[in-house]
Design a protein that fits this description.
Layout: E1 18-20, E2 30-33, E3 39-42, E4 45-49, E5 57-61, E6 68-76, E7 83-92, E8 101-109, E9 120-123, E10 127-130, E11 148-155, E12 158-163, E13 166-172, E14 180-185, E15 197-206, E16 222-223, H1 231-235, E17 238-240, E18 250-252, E19 263-266, E20 269-272, E21 286-288, E22 295-303, E23 308-315, E24 328-333, E25 374-380, E26 385-390, E27 393-399, H2 403-410, E28 427-430, E29 437-446
Parallel strand pairs: 13-16
Antiparallel strand pairs: 1-15, 2-5, 3-4, 4-15, 5-14, 6-11, 6-15, 7-8, 7-14, 8-9, 9-10, 11-12, 12-13, 17-29, 18-21, 19-20, 20-29, 21-28, 22-25, 22-29, 23-24, 23-28, 25-26, 26-27
Length: 448
């Protein structure tokens, strides 16, 4: 998907196939869209300045690019000057009452205390794809008030980012094989934030003879290609628990084979079928054939209106209880329409919570609507620290077996189960709660 456009006069192609997108003197090859914030050239840099009462403003390339490596230097002078770089993006001139709107993947500049610079945000469309709660070690790479070296690599369906040579984000996506590159001046909320500047210089791109730059081990990949693993993920120990086609690797809880009814595999999804909303009354729960101790588990899930389900871990199947098998549960729920959201204590039965024990701290803006795919993640570290994530945002953490954990259990519905949640290993479980819920892209990495 590389580009073969002829260079304009503002572009200078070097002997090693790098092309300058900015000549250091003019804005030739660029155009402003979507807002009224000004861009000017000063001292060899493109300078964007915030102004009040205008939406996000972008300076975008007149050309579109497919596969590329982009390098530039960028500086933000104020921690109120959020900015970013659009990649493979587009412009809808009819949106925003005819003022137009830019949409597409953006590499974020976030000088706030949150410090998500280098993360990937889908502007005016899906929201955050790669928040830096997925790679917290990279949050300190960006430096305020000085030029930072930015590198963005878009090859095939993979996007990788670096800030000052620190690897930050890794996204595999299914949208936008090509589009323009853009510089952002973010809208502001009040006059006090007006006049803040962002600076861009040394902007160059390479579109031929591209070789992907390897990432070090340990960087989490947000993979939006259903039921697929990148070569990087496979190399570093990730395995699919669902291949998108069969039920291999799964059996019914307390059974020796997969349920004959109540579940289906269709269109790349593993779906529990609706019955009457009761626990394990139709096909029943399903569990992995294998057991796991410490692991990083990811899964996509899609709820139907009012639905209830869950992903359980450290399921031992030793209780021989009726209903759903016992285990620590990542709650999957329509919080608005299912009554369980208002039960328990302080919301500890809501979506992404540790069911009946710890409430997930989440903001609605990070949720995908019912009927769309959301991403869940559970990380169990070898030291028994456990984290729950929802769409890349960490929503809770706790330590299995700690005094605080045992106190929570003592005040929960699990108080009568001896050593609840403290098994050394267990199965992964997908719950049949009588409602239609779909799963896909279930992947796991065992941690040592």
């Amino acid at each position: 998907m590389g580009c073969s456009q002829k260079s304009q006069k503002s572009e200078q192609v070097s002997s090693d196939n790098w092309t300058n997108l900015f000549d250091g003197k003019t804005l030739d090859g660029w155009k402003r869209v979507a807002g009224e914030a000004p861009y000017e050239v000063k001292d060899g840099a493109i300078v964007g300045t915030t102004i009040a009462n205008t939406p996000n403003t972008f300076l975008v390339t007149e050309k579109e690019y497919g596969d590329f490596v982009l390098e530039l230097d960028a500086m933000v002078e104020s921690n109120g000057s959020n900015s970013g770089i659009q990649t493979r993006s587009h412009f809808d001139p009819e949106a925003n009452n005819g003022k137009g709107r830019v949409y597409g993947r953006q590499v974020e500049f976030d000088p706030s205390e949150r410090a998500w610079t280098g993360g990937i945000y889908d502007e005016a469309r899906r929201g955050w794809l790669y928040p830096l709660s997925l790679n917290p070690e990279a949050r300190q790479a960006f430096k305020m008030g000085e030029y930072n070296k930015i590198k963005i690599e878009c090859i095939g369906n993979e996007t990788k980012t670096w800030i000052n040579d620190v690897p930050v984000a890794y996204v595999v996506d299914t949208l936008d094989p090509s589009g323009f590159i853009g510089l952002q001046v973010h809208s502001i909320n009040n006059e006090e934030q007006a006049g803040k500047k962002v600076f861009f210089k040394n902007i160059r791109i390479k579109t031929t003879d591209l070789t992907p730059t390897p990432f070090p081990a340990g960087v989490y990949v947000v993979n939006n290609q259903p039921n697929a693993l990148t070569a990087y993920e496979q190399e570093h120990g990730w395995k699919l628990l669902f291949d998108g086609k069969t039920t291999e690797g799964w059996v019914g809880a307390y059974k020796s084979s997969f349920p004959e009814k109540g579940w289906k595999v269709e269109n790349g999804a593993l779906t529990v079928l609706p019955s009457d909303g009761g626990e394990s009354q139709n096909g029943g729960d399903i569990v992995t054939s294998a057991k796991y101790r410490a692991f990083d588990l990811s899964f996509d899930f899609k709820l139907t209106p009012g639905a209830n389900s869950g992903v359980k871990y450290f399921v031992t199947l030793s209780e021989n209880n009726s209903g759903s098998a016992i285990g620590l549960e990542y709650q999957i729920l329509d919080d608005e329409k299912h009554p369980d959201a208002k039960m328990g204590r302080n919301g500890n039965r809501t979506l992404a919570s540790l069911y009946d024990l710890i409430t997930a701290e989440k903001q609605s803006r990070f949720l995908r609507p019912i009927g769309e795919w959301n991403k869940g993640r559970v990380v169990v570290h070898p030291n028994n620290k456990v984290e729950h994530f929802l769409n890349g945002i960490k929503v809770l953490e706790y330590e299995r077996g700690s005094a605080a954990f045992r106190e929570l259990v003592a005040n929960s519905k699990y108080k009568d189960w001896e050593n609840f949640g403290e098994a050394t290993e267990g199965h992964i479980l997908l719950q049949d709660h009588g409602d239609q819920v779909s799963f896909r892209s279930i992947k796991i990495k065992e941690l040592k």
